[in-house]
Write a structure and sequence with these properties.
9 helices
Length: 355
């Protein structure tokens, strides 16, 4: 990718092409092939909240298992069964329809509503109710600590297990590039094209938060792709904004030698740009690269303000601390936990070698 600014007609095509061909942390190792989600039971995700319920309050937290329903549709039928308004329902994140999902939603039923009445109202719905607890607060977007995945890759190659073990060993050393998954960008990556079109002259007044987030996600993926291609995936740069792995505190790299030692020990990890008008930019060499990419696509941080997109920082590398791989009748089973906002498909592409 050269440094000349892209024409507005070209930037969507370039962005889509770059997001469609992302590099691997495990280049040089053969993949296992196979199919993910041959059945919904081959993709199980269990959501974990960042806090425990207190046992009192007007909100009822319902933990349930579902398949064949997305989060919004499941929430809607449960809300109607309980006779509540849409604003009375809360969830931490959206989960896939083609999967078996264990998720917790909150319902503002009031402090006097008996739990057995709530249970009875939901009994006829096609969900397995696993638990109900009271809490004082509504679950809001982002109130997810992590997601645990159990994924079966069906019909992999004959020597899939040793191949998968070799890939896992490499990822233990390199971590997984924290790319946004393809589901973020829609069919044919149309969300990138439609999102970038919102920044064009004459489109003032139209605000679509989801499409803007797709643009932010695509730019992050491109930024990380370029960092990998430039040989900077496993090294810090002057001015990087890094995050402490224990406390989550963030700071700017000023002493590269000292912070590189901390990075190598796993005490800190660097973050990438989720561009927005309030984003904390990197400085020095790292900052120059971030701003050069944004300028290349004809954008500036201030351009995100009309869309109320403040921006943020995203960890660039995922560490798989609990990855387990085992043979099963249908193929190979992978089990691991990811922080909120990370994509299991990003992990699995390293094994299957699908884009």
């Amino acid at each position: 990718m050269n440094d000349s600014p892209l024409q507005s007609d070209d930037r969507a095509a370039i962005a889509m092409a770059m997001v469609n061909a992302l590099p691997f942390a495990t280049d040089g190792l053969p993949g296992i092939g196979g199919t993910i989600k041959a059945t919904p039971a081959h993709f199980i995700v269990e959501e974990r909240l960042p806090y425990a319920t207190c046992g009192e309050g007007e909100h009822v937290y319902v933990t349930f298992r579902r398949s064949g329903w997305n989060t919004a549709d499941a929430a809607r039928v449960m809300q109607r069964a309980l006779g509540l308004a849409p604003a009375d329902v809360g969830w931490g994140g959206r989960k896939d329809r083609t999967a078996v999902v264990v998720q917790t939603l909150s319902f503002r039923c009031g402090v006097k509503a008996p739990l057995d009445t709530v249970q009875k109202a939901l009994a006829e719905l096609p969900f397995e109710i696993l638990d109900m607890q009271r809490h004082r607060n509504k679950i809001k977007t982002g109130h997810v600590a992590s997601n645990h995945f159990t994924i079966v890759v069906s019909a992999p190659c004959a020597d899939a297990l040793p191949r998968a073990q070799a890939i896992a060993q490499r990822l233990k050393a390199t971590g997984v590039p924290n790319f946004y998954g393809p589901q973020r960008f829609g069919h044919g990556m149309r969300n990138i094209q439609d999102g970038l079109a919102l920044f064009s002259p004459g489109r003032k007044g139209r605000k679509d938060a989801f499409l803007i987030s797709a643009v932010q996600s695509a730019l992050f993926n491109i930024w990380l792709r370029l960092r990998m291609e430039n040989g900077n995936y496993r090294r810090l740069l002057n001015g990087d904004i890094v995050k402490k792995t224990d406390t989550g505190g963030m700071f700017c790299v000023e002493d590269l030698d000292v912070d590189t030692e901390r990075f190598d020990r796993g005490e800190i990890t660097y973050t990438g740009p989720i561009y927005g008008f309030k984003m904390k930019p990197a400085q020095a060499a790292a900052g120059e690269r971030e701003m050069a990419l944004l300028d290349r696509f004809g954008l500036a941080l201030a351009d995100f303000k009309p869309f109320r997109a403040p921006g943020s920082r995203r960890e660039a590398i995922l560490e798989l601390t609990d990855l387990e791989i085992a043979p099963v009748d249908d193929g190979l089973q992978f089990a691991f936990t990811l922080p909120s906002g990370a994509y299991a498909t990003t992990v699995m592409r390293e094994f299957t070698r699908s884009a």
